[in-house]
Amino acid sequence: MPELPEVETVRRGLEQKLENFIIKRVEICRDSTVAYPLDKEEFIKGLKNSLIYKWGRRGKYLIAELKITEGNNIVIDNEYSFINNGFLVVHLRMTGYFTFNSSLENPCKHTRIRLFDNKHNELRYIDVRSFGQMWWVKEGLLPTSIIKGLGSLGPEPFSEKFNVNYLYDVISKRTRSIKSILLDQTIVAGIGNI
């Protein structure tokens, strides 16, 4: 199961590999992978023509900031003028992962979402157990208000808030085992069994 270190590694890889990746086509191979919006066509329409601008991470969630070209792709000083287009949020769950394909290949049976750019490069989301999910959160909405688990995460393990005093306060108020406390994502974000 991908946990905080693995998800951070995935985030770094995606950020490095997907520089200037503008989504031109979206293919949903399994409807249940899209958690929000419920209308799959709205998900596709929301992502289409979006630049995957920057990848972030919160706990085990990957969060891509999306930008979209302003006004019919008008080039200004040899650059596009971009405005915010919300977020693509991904939770890999147990078996989700991404592949990047620069040549057109048939998807395997575990392919859930395919994102293509105008050069036919493909970011493919594969998930054997099909527990992973994706959300497109449009501009003006906060991912934490749409995604219940994301909004209730505790501090990151390397953040200033996560320190000896915080941990002592949390543990002293509970009768559960240390393991169950540390696995509770509302107490510490990103820790798992491994």
Give a verbal description of the structure.
- This protein is α+β, with helices and mostly antiparallel strands and 194 residues long.
- Helix content is 23%, strand content 32%.
- It has 6 helices and 11 strands.
- The chain has helices at 4-17, 40-47, 143-146, 148-151, 164-172, 178-183; strands at 25-28, 34-36, 50-58, 61-69, 75-76, 79-80, 82-91, 96-101, 111-116, 122-127, 133-137.
- The strands form 3 sheets. Strands 2-11-7-4-3 form a 5-stranded mixed beta sheet. Strands 1-9-10-8 form a 4-stranded antiparallel beta sheet, with helices on one face.
- Strand 5 and strand 6 form a beta hairpin.
- The longest helix is centred in the N-terminal third of the chain and has 14 residues, at 4-17.
- The model has no long low-confidence stretch (mean pLDDT 93).
Average residue-wise pLDDT: 93
Broad structural category? alpha+beta
User: Which sequence of SSEs, written as H and E, runs from N to C?
Assistant: HEEHEEEEEEEEEHHHH
Quaternary structure type: single chain
Specify the helix fraction band: 10-25%
Let me know the largest β-sheet.
Answer: 5 strands, mixed
Radius of gyration: 18 Å
Low-confidence regions: none
Hey, roughly how much beta strand do the residues contain? Answer: 25-35%
E-strand count: 11
Number of H/I helices: 6
Query: What general form does the structure show?
Result: globular
Output the strand order for the largest sheet.
Answer: 2-11-7-4-3
Report the span from N to C terminus.
8 Å
